[in-house]
Amino acid sequence: MLSRSTAYHVPVDVSPSRDEINIKNAIDRIHYEEPAFGVRRIRNELHKQGFHNMGRRLVRRYMMEMDIVCFYPGPNLSKRANAAKTYPYLLRNLEIDRPNQVWSIDITYIGTPNGFVYLTAIIDWYSRYIVGYTISNTLQTDMVTRVIKNAVETYGAPEIINSDQGSQFTSNAYIDLIKSFKTTKISMDGKGRATDNIAIERFFRSYKWERLYLLYPETVTEVKAMTKEYIAKYNHKRGHQRFDYKTPAAVFYENMALAA
After folding, report:
1. Which residue has the higher pLDDT, 36 or 131?
2. For residue range 206-260, what is the model confidence (pLDDT) as tens digits?
3. Domain count, the chain
4. How confident is the model at residue 14 (pLDDT cuts 50, 70, 90)?
5. What does pLDDT average to over the chain?
6. 34 and 149 in one domain?
7. Structural domain includes residue 22
8. Is residue 166 a part of any domain in this protein?
9. 188 vs 14 pLDDT, higher one
């Protein structure tokens, strides 16, 4: 979820306990309400909410597993998955003025009573249009490559695609796929920079506060239905002030037509 340089470490073959799911959901809510909170302040909030046995080490471990860092430049929580496969951040001081110029991709954690689910989404930075997403109960690189392939087949390849430095985005499969588009440049958030991927982070924040934390889906099927409904409304009914309250879809398609 945030612009960060950590990798997920959730075991795929071990079912989490109900307590672990509840604690991680609480951490997730605290983080989205107070993005600047680090380990110590999140632990203090957990204590206030009744999770009295949470020490800093366990909070830090859970945050690493959820790929959460606080929303300011600082030390990253774990090593990058593949330091040789990282790329510079290309968006600093870049004027983004058209669709398909820059896409941002990221993954966010969703806790349900039946285990963990992960949402991978791609947003067009200019229009805020969600060009692709997928839901999975495992953190595999193929869920990232699949959603990118589908988006490119539908809308064409972007000029730049930005991500964090997590393991899915420094994998050979991801790098090779982006390079196969020939004209697409790879951009990655600076190490520990939690604001470099702000477009997708704002979408995840809205998604969680406006749907996830209100509906609390219990199964993957419910998560998929909720997400499909929310993204459809976000793309086609939610106006943005910067575009005189035009929807992301209207801005995206109008400008794509002008560029054609």
Report:
1. 131
2. 999 899 888 889 999 999 999 999 999 999 999 988 889 999 999 999 987 766 5
3. 2
4. low
5. 85
6. no
7. yes
8. yes
9. 188
Domain for residue 78, yes or no?
no
Give the residues across from 133 on adjacent strands: 121
Nearest to 135 by CA among 8, 224, 16: 224
Domain-located, residue 46 = yes
Supply the pLDDT for residue 116: 86
What does pTM read for this prediction?
0.78
Distance of CA 81 to the CA centre of its chain: 17
Q: Are 195 and 253 in a shared domain? A: yes
Quick one: CA dihedral 34, 167, 78, 198, positive or negative? Answer: negative
Domain boundary among 32, 65, 98: 65
Cα-based torsion angle of the residue sequence 122, 126, 127, 129 in order, rounded to the nearest 10 degrees: 0
Residue 76 above 90 pLDDT?
no
Per the structure, the complete domain to which residue 61 belongs is given by 18-65
CATH of the domain at 255: 3.30.420.10
What is the rounded end-to-end Cα distance, in angstroms, of the chain? Answer: 33
d(CA 26, CA 224): 21
The contacts found for 214-221 with CB under 8 angstroms, 24 or more apart, are 216/112, 217/110, 217/112, 218/112, 218/113, 218/114, 219/112, 219/114, 220/112, 220/114, 220/117, 220/135, 220/137
Q: Are residues 97 and 211 in the same domain?
A: yes
- Reading the block at residue 107, the tokens are 């993954």
